[in-house]
Structures are given as C-alpha cells and as structure tokens.
Specification:
mainly alpha, single chain, globular, 5 helices
Amino acid sequence: LAKLAIQDFHLLNALSSASIGRLGDYRPQELSNTAWAYAKLGFRHRPLMDALAAAAIKTITELNPHDLSGTAWAFATLSYQDHTPLLNAISPASRPLLA
C-alpha cells in the first residue's frame, strides 16, 4: 500500500486493527516493514504502533541493520517519542553491527 501511495483510511484502520492480534506471527523483518509502510504513508495508528514496538523489542536481536534503521526511522517519522524502550533496545542492538 505504501509504495502504491494508497491512503484509504478506512482500509488502513481495518488492517491496523486486524494486524495487532497477528503480530506474534510476524517475522522480525515483517514488523519493521509494517512500521515503515505506515510511516511512509504518514498514517498514525497508536494501538498498532504500540504493539509493533512491543513485538520488535522481543525480536530486537534478530533484526538486521536495515530493519533496525527502518524501525527507528518509522517511529521517528511518525513522531512517536514515547517509545523510549524501543529506541533504547535499538541502540545497543545496532552497536555490534557497526563494527
């Protein structure tokens, strides 16, 4: 949807609500991609982003550099400044990958 620039807010709300209960089935890259897509569209859905942050923290060591930076970018782009636990998890997970 993001690459197509589709902004059907009813569809995005429905997808967001349906996705929350399925995030446990997402691979780490899918969590990052989902956050990126919503940020690319500029669509804020706090319950989904809260759930994505919690799920990403659980799998933070499985994220590659691209996924770590994409997740950080998504939350920054959507101005979710209250996700300090996620950002605090991304920082140490990124350090070993920089060497």
